[in-house]
Amino acid sequence: MGLIDKIRSYLNEEEPGSSPFSAEDDKAKKKFAASISSDLDEEPDTEQEREQDGRKKRSSGGFFSMFRKNKKEASKEPERKKRRSPAEINPELYNSIQGQGASKDERESAKEFCEQLIDVTYNMEDMKREYKLVTSYLIDIQKIEELPDDMANDLAENARRIDMLNEDKSKYIQSEKLLPMDRYNTMASFEKDVPSTIKKLIDMEMRDNLLKNDMSYLEGEKEDLKFMHQEHNDSISKIRSMTAVVLTIFLLIVGSMLIFSVTTKKSVTVYCLGVFLAAMIFFAVAYARYKLLKSEIAENDAKLNRAILLLNKVKVKFINNTNTLDYIYDKYGVNSSNELEYQWDQYNTMVRDALRYSQANNDLRVYSDELIGKLKNFGLEDPFVWTKQTKALIDPREMVEIKHGLNVRRQNIREKLATCEKIKTNATTALRAAIDTNQGLEVYINDLLSSYNIKLGEE
User: pTM for this structure?
Assistant: First the structure.
């Protein structure tokens, strides 16, 4: 129960009914802490001080007063009492507070948050690598912009020759009208990753639809249970009102009969018994109905709590899954796995056609190698990418556009990382709260995370 309470607190979902921790549990914990503190303190040194301390403890009614010895026995003990651990003072209460092992629900809840932490950690690693790559591109652009004029002109001339050859290739490729060049360049940049990304997107989209359906179903169930709860409360109010009315009528009738009997001196015993029997029957039926409604309300509230807990879990999974999908969509500039798969097929066709043409054009290879060699000498991190972006080396406006696109792309990655960081923090907080509630979960949680080389609270 402690773990579920921590999770509900973390997810900020209000639920009907009282808190899982009752007032008696809170009082027991406070008394337990107070008794531990008082029992671990040193005993008074003198008999007079022990008598005063005994009177205070008897008047305060301490939780462990039943374990205190009387004055005569205390006077026979050493002047200073040996310190005892909380577990020795009251093992049963100590174990109930500390936790004696994880239940199935606690383990399942901990496993859910471990899976969230694992997913978001690996997603963040991918995003950080992508962020580092984009940053290296921006650094390369800065190095190119800071070149002396003679080197920049030589580089632009080399790029112009490559651009002319690329235009010849583009005429053949664009004649097919398969893909725009920006989409072609995107596919070329992530050529090795696209096949695995398509499979991943298909699985994640299916999971996204399933989570949406689960959320819709649980939302509907939650609203139905809330409506039933309100209907039962209305029925109880009606029973109470009817009972009050019937009781009033019963008293009026009995009173009237008694007055009539006194004034006329006629016996109304039979009538009174009949009225009394009818009233008792009504009250019995009303009470039975009242107890049934109360039982249904309790059962309804339990179902409602369960529906809210499941809904919260599904919501967290849905948010994590949606964030990952949005990141992949932004990365490839698509809206679905079908669109990416279609563009991938078109790209493969274009690559085959372009290779046929480029194989007959050795000059393109020569100039490209020359450009790459120059860029390597300038200390660029990735000189190969500029063979596909020669216009940026020729026209500064094109370079500004590429630089702007990279900055936007880097900002988007930052935002996704911030969102993932919140999810990671929330999952870590929930797992720590679970461990604080039940220390028996610590080994279970660490085993789950260590299998993925992840430590709780790892930055």
Answer: 0.40
